[in-house]
Structures are given as C-alpha cells and as structure tokens.
Amino acid sequence: MNSKYKLQSLPNGHNKEAQLQSIYDLNQANTPEVGSLESMHHLKQLIEFSSYNLLVLNNDEIVGFIICMREGSSYKSENYKFFTQRLKKFMYVDRVAIDKRHRRGGLGRAIYKDIFAQADGDDLPIALEVNTQPVNQPSLDFHEKMGFDKVGAKDFDDHSVAYFIK
Prior knowledge:
Blueprint: E1 5-8, H1 16-29, H2 40-49, E2 52-58, E3 61-70, H3 78-84, E4 91-98, H4 107-121, E5 126-133, H5 137-145, E6 149-155, E7 160-165
C-alpha cells in the first residue's frame, strides 16, 4: 500500500459526523457492488453491530472502509444468517468499498491483511458474500486471489450472491 494512505478504526474524534457522512456517500457510490444503505441511521446501526472496522484515509479524505461483524451479533441480514447457521465463530465482512479513484493500488490487499491478522489472533474463519447477479467480477476475482473458497450461493428477488470463507 502506498505510504500516502493510512488505516484507522472508524469513526472517531471531533469529526465523527463528517466521517459518517463520507462513509455513507462512499457506500452509496459503490452500489450495487455493496448494498445500498437506507439512511444514515442504517449505517450507524451497522457500525454498532460491528466488531471490527477500518477506514482508509488519503490525508484526511476517506477513500475506503470495511465493516465486519462477529458471530452473535443482532444483525438480521440473510447473508449473515447463512454463516450463523454453519459456523460457531467467524468474522463476517458485511461491506467493503474503495473510492474508484483509488482502486488497483493495493488498498484492498492492505485492508484484508489487517483483517487476516485480526482473525488469526482469534482463530476465526472470514466469511463474506459477493454479488453474482448483477455480477461483481472484480470482487469475485479479488477474493479468489486472496484464497477464499466458495461455500454456497443464494438467489434473492433482485440479486444473487455467492458465499465465501477463508
């Protein structure tokens, strides 16, 4: 990862509301690759449910983020439930987004390197889903290169996903 970027937990300090707005805007700019958020309140709920998260900063600009949950969360996502029914413990990647201007520079690998270190400390598999309809081919390719194995799939009314574990 280029040294102009830094990783930090989200959100913090005096500019928390501004950070939340930036995360929300980045999420919405990355739909349908990541699920759309209904509101700022929805984002705040996800962060409350999360056990691990990161921001990627370029100077003070948020250019990426990830939000993860552990088993036992109150999160009601059907995709999260897929893993709760199959695994005793895990880290679930709910969403990860990188600003289009900052892609293909190693940020995804840097974020996942940090996740792997967190998960290894607790001996956790990492679980996630990727859209297959509409297809998110860059994410499918990325997760395959990162060593994730497909363990299932599900069709919803408006999209389809593949489930992965590493």
